[in-house]
Write a structure and sequence with these properties.
Structural class: alpha/beta
Shape: globular
Order of helices and strands: EHEHEHEEEEHH
CATH topology: Maf protein
Number of helices: 5
Helix content: 25-40%
Radius of gyration: 17 Å
CATH class: Alpha Beta
Distance between the termini: 17 Å
Strand content: 15-25%
Oligomer: single chain
CATH architecture: Alpha-Beta Complex
């Protein structure tokens, strides 16, 4: 079955597509549509609210089952920042260099034991009729004192994954896909997919 990914981020398309392809899901992105749905303002107070808002807008605009994610970095020592504002932490949407600079400045005084952090990802699949299904994943780590590694995207260069003894940016796509918050959410989604697929097919038959 083909589903629409409500994103234009090529890193997410590659990561999500490589995992969902294993359960027979073909993905297309917003950039593949002749007339993409309008942009959605991510003003929800939780990751789940933002993911649902994006998925529903994409599904209704395209007529296709649509999958959206909202994910971010949570640092308890900073009261949960950057949280749902992870992509626009420093003000400009998607300016990850500025976001990392701000994060590292705010944490410069913190010793390693207080640099605990976790990534959270919430996935929502929406049908054009408004039904939704949710999956989620989390991975724990530490914030480094400086960037390490050239790979990945987002906060990957400053997120140190203890079992691998390296940052996500140093692990490569295949290594990161085994343990990342998004991959764990995708595995949760993949486990739920057989039942979701049945529900989607039932609706298609009624139509």
């Amino acid at each position: 079955m083909k589903i629409l990914l409500a994103t234009r981020n090529p890193g997410k398309v590659l990561e999500i597509g490589s995992i969902l392809g294993q359960v027979g899901i073909e993905v297309v992105s917003l950039d593949d549509l002749p007339e993409p749905p309008p942009e959605v303002v991510e003003d929800g107070e939780t990751f789940g609210e933002n993911a649902a808002k994006k998925a529903l807008a994409a599904a209704r605009g395209s007529g296709m089952p649509s999958l959206a994610d909202d994910s971010g970095l949570v640092v308890p020592a900073l009261g949960g920042e950057p949280g749902v504002r992870s992509a626009r932490y420093a003000g400009d949407e998607g300016n990850m260099e500025a976001n990392m600079d701000l994060l590292l400045r705010k944490m410069a005084h913190l010793p390693e034991r207080e640099r605990l952090a976790h990534f959270i990802c919430v996935l929502v699949l929406a049908a054009p009729d408004g039904r939704t299904w949710e999956a989620s994943g989390r991975v724990d780590g530490l914030i480094t004192f400086q960037r390490q590694g050239e790979g990945g995207f987002g906060y990957d260069p400053v997120f140190f994954y203890l079992p691998a003894e390296r940052t996500f940016a140093q692990m490569g796509l295949e290594g990161k896909n085994q343990v990342s918050h998004r991959s764990r959410a995708l595995r949760d989604f993949a486990e739920k997919w057989p039942e979701i697929k049945k529900e989607l097919k039932k609706e298609q038959k009624r139509e």
